[in-house]
Amino acid sequence: MYKYGLFRQVSATVAGLFGKDRATRRINRDKIRYKGLIATVGKNVIPRKKYETKIPVAFCFDGRGCKMAAVTIKSLLNSSVNRCDYDIYCVIGEDVDKSLQKIVADIVKGSGSTIHFVYGNHDFDESNRRKWPVAMWYRLMLPELLPNVPRIIYADLDIIFCRDLIDVYELDLGDNIIAAVPTRTDHYFNSGFLLMDLDKIRKEKIYPKWIKESMEHDYKNPDQDVLNHTLVGRVLFLPLKYNFQLSHGSRIFKIYSETEIDDLKHNLVTLHYSDYIKPWGERGKRPVFSAIWWDVAKQTGLFKE
What we know:
Layout (H helix, E strand, L loop, with lengths): L4 H11 L6 H12 L21 E7 L4 H13 L7 E7 L5 H11 L5 E6 L22 H4 L5 E5 L3 E3 L4 H4 L8 E3 L12 E5 H6 L3 H10 L5 H9 L4 E3 L6 E2 L6 H4 L2 H10 L2 E3 L17 H11 L5
Parallel strand pairs: 1-2, 1-4, 2-3, 6-8, 9-10
Antiparallel strand pairs: 4-7, 5-10, 6-7
Helix pairs in contact: 1-2, 3-4, 3-12, 8-9
C-alpha cells in the first residue's frame, strides 16, 4: 500500500462528510486523496530525435462528442511537439456531419499530424448497451474499419494527454492482444486507454466473438466487460501513468505500488476524468485537476468559462 494511503483515505472520508450534494462531497474527498500527485504536465524534459513514422491513434464519438474530441486531440498535439506526429482516426456516428467534422479537423491544421474520419458500422446495433450510445462500441470496430492499420492506440474523450505516446506504441505485446491499465486487484482493466494489436484480432477472428458476446450478455460496463471477458490472459498490464483515473477513489492506494503513484508527479501520460463529474460541467461541481483540462480547452476556442 502507498505509504500515506491510509492517512489520506481516513482524511478524505472525513472531508466527504461535508457538502450539500454528492458531487461536492466527492470533490472534497478527492482534493485530499490526490493532493500533490501531479506536479508537472506536458513538459518533456528529455529531448529526443523526432519519431520517424506517424503513430496511429483512434477516438470514437457521435455528434455530442465533437468539442470534447477537439480538446483531447489538442492535448495530444501539445504534448508531442517536435517528438512525434500522429495518424488520427475518428470513428464517428452518422450525426457527425461535415460542419462537425471541421470543428475537429481544424485542431490538426498546421501540425504534422493527419486526421481521418470513418463512420462506424452497424455490427453492434443490436448489442446491449444500457444507458450508453451505440458509439461506445466503436472502439471494438477498429480492426474491421481499419484493415490496413496493424496496431493502434485508442483513447476516450474525457482524457487529457500530458506526454507523447512513443514508448507505449513501441511496446512488445508478445502473445497479448492489447495493453491496458488494471483498475482492480483481479486485473480487471479500464477500456479508456488501450494499445490494440489489430492484426492479431483479425488473424484470430476475435471480432466476431466480441459481437456475439455483446449480444448475449447485458454487462454493467458493456464494451469494457466484453473486452475483459474475452481477452483473459491476453492483456499486457500498463503502469498507472498511462491511465490515471479520477474515479479510482481510495482504491488507488491499494491497487498500485508507491513507485507507480510517485511516477504520476512528473511522468503522467494520460489524465482520465472518468468519474461522473466532468471538467466541462457546472462551475463549482468540477473534478480535481479540471484546470488542466481548461488550459487546453481555451486554446481550441470552443469553450469559455
